[in-house]
């Protein structure tokens, strides 16, 4: 396997082989433990009718139900929110997902008025019409705002649906669907997510349908794979440590490097500048931590003291 491939697999916490029953249990337990450790009793998530929110939603509902049973505290709840932009083309799938999840609560909030409000304001400010692509990212950020608003109202933590196949390509809107409090799908490939839904007896439609960000007015329901220019199966092969062509691997790795800023906290001063005490503390810590590298720059990078190293881009 390529060295960079192994590094990405490790960094994104992908397990090439999973036991779906065990994976479901561990991820539900993670949500329960996280709620209990923070003192929160509620989780919230936007349900689109796609695979990722269906899976994350089901895991969250199971976590809430188990916590209610184990603690006899009825305050543990999972709250969903439908966030259509106007009328959603695949509303039936969203309803199917809700029927499968059986969430404790469903809100609906139309993001169209607030998204559209930006259109004339943007043009007024710039004298140029907003592009369909940029408007798509506004939709994702409006959904984030709605989830955080309802989350604050309900004292709920916001669930994110990021997983390894999205993380490796940075295929999410920064501070849009990329913003959340807790991500129960971390490390899963797209096909592993489908396997978990199958194991949970979800309707097949919800894990066989074509994944779409569905953010563009001009290309409704455009397949992620069309925009990405790469199939999820190929991304999954790469992430599960299977052989892919050098050309494919290089294009994935290039994208991974280019989108690094989306997987990290914002670059903050003095990022890239390190003081003598910082270097000493990194060296001391690194003698205890199980680093995969003997390279000093990699170690500093792992502690966010430098932005990149030639080894990992
Ligand atoms: N090197 C750097 N260091 C720090 N920040 C950097 C940066 N380069 C750009 N940036 C910042 O990042 C911004 C670009 O990132 P971002 O705003 O996310 O924009 P961008 O990556 O261009 O767009 C998001 C992509 O994710 C896709 N998406 C979105 C939502 C959901 C899904 C889905 O799978 O369902 C997919 C969407 O279709 C699109 O292709 C720049 O405008 C700039 O502010
Ligand atoms: N119309 C919508 N209503 C509510 N939430 C949405 C909507 N569209 C997107 N979201 C939220 O944004 C997240 C990111 O969208 P994304 O398309 O990656 O996931 P998905 O739709 O659940 O699955 P898939 O990738 O298979 O389409 C969703 O998981 C969901 O939480
Ligand atoms: Mg989708």
TrEMBL record:
Oligomeric and partner information: Homodimer.
Q: What name is this protein filed under?
A: NH(3)-dependent NAD(+) synthetase
The similarity annotation says: Belongs to the NAD synthetase family.
Q: What terms describe the molecular function in GO for this protein?
A: ATP binding; glutaminase activity; metal ion binding; NAD+ synthase (glutamine-hydrolyzing) activity; NAD+ synthase activity
Query: Which part of the chain is the NAD/GMP synthase domain?
Result: 24-266
Positions binding deamido-NAD(+) in this chain are 141, 174, 181, 261-262
> Which cellular components does GO assign to this protein?
cytoplasm
PANTHER family hit by this protein: NH 3 /GLUTAMINE-DEPENDENT NAD + SYNTHETASE, NH(3)-DEPENDENT NAD(+) SYNTHETASE
Function of the molecule: Catalyzes the ATP-dependent amidation of deamido-NAD to form NAD. Uses ammonia as a nitrogen source.
Alphabetically sorted, this entry's keywords are: ATP-binding, Ligase, Magnesium, Metal-binding, NAD, Nucleotide-binding
List, alphabetically, the NCBIfam families matched.
nadE, PRK00768.1
Q: Which reaction does it catalyse?
A: deamido-NAD(+) + NH4(+) + ATP = AMP + diphosphate + NAD(+) + H(+)
Question: What InterPro entries has UniProt attached to this entry?
Answer: NAD/GMP_synthase, NAD_synthase, NH(3)-dep_NAD(+)_synth
Q: Which residues bind ATP?
A: 46-53, 161, 190, 212
NAD among the record's keywords?
Answer: yes
């Amino acid at each position: 396997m390529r060295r960079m491939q192994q590094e990405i697999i490790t960094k994104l916490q992908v397990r090439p082989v999973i036991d779906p029953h065990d994976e479901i249990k561990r991820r539900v337990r993670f949500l329960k433990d996280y709620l209990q450790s923070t003192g929160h009793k509620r989780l919230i998530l936007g349900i689109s009718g796609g695979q990722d929110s269906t899976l994350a939603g089901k895991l969250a509902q199971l976590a809430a139900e188990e916590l209610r049973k184990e603690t006899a505290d009825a305050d543990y709840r999972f709250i969903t929110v439908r966030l259509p932009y106007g009328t959603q083309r695949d509303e039936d799938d969203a309803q199917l997902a809700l029927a499968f999840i059986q969430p404790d609560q469903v809100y609906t909030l139309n993001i169209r008025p607030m998204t559209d409000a930006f259109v004339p304001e943007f043009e007024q400010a710039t004298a140029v019409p907003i592009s369909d692509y940029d408007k798509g990212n506004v939709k994702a950020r409006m959904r984030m705002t709605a989830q955080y608003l309802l989350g604050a109202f309900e004292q709920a933590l916001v669930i994110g649906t990021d997983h390894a196949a999205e993380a490796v390509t940075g295929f999410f809107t920064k501070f849009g669907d990329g913003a959340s409090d807790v991500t129960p799908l971390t490390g899963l490939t797209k096909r592993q997510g489908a396997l978990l839904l199958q194991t949970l007896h979800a309707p097949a439609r919800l894990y066989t349908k074509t994944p779409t960000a569905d953010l563009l007015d001009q290309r409704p329901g455009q397949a992620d794979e069309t925009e990405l220019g790469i199939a999820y199966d190929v991304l999954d092969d790469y992430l599960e440590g299977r052989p892919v062509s050098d050309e494919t691997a290089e294009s994935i790795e290039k994208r991974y490097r280019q989108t690094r800023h989306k997987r990290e906290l914002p670059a903050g001063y003095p990022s890239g500048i390190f003081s003598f005490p910082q270097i000493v503390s990194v060296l001391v810590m690194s003698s205890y931590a199980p680093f995969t590298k003997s390279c000093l720059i990699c170690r500093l990078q792992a502690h966010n003291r430098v932005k990149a190293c030639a080894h990992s881009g």
